[in-house]
Amino acid sequence: MRNKLGKLRERANVDAKYVYENINVTNDIYSKWENNKRKVPLKYIIDICNLFEIKLDYLLNLSDNIEISKIKYSSDKKKIGNKLKEIRTDLSMSLREESKLTDISFNALSRYERGIRLISTSALTKISIKTGYDVNWILSEKKTTKNKIIQNNG
Asked: What is the pTM for the complete model shown?
């Protein structure tokens, strides 16, 4: 994540202080993220994407390209949970089947869908990759067209 956070800052011509103050974390925490000493929680990945107006794919390591985006992302657990349930319904899967497909525990998937807990970064990435649904759609704040991603395994 270090190179990506640094690239974002360089591209925007801002210093670390600008970022950590705008996403409401301490210099120490942000420094640990940039130096790969701590993982960035999804809530802050969302905040960083909104701050720099970029797509989530980049910070989730699903893309190497920084894409500008006017999408506003949400960390609203209920909204995200509803979209996760919508994906599962679209795929005609039970929670148990989705758990096997994604290697995410049944209980965790249930908590995410019910909006009890914010989905983890790794779970979000697994769900996107395994189901083909775009993380940008899953976390978009507004109702947007449901996007499936095209897998590029070559």
From this structure: 0.86
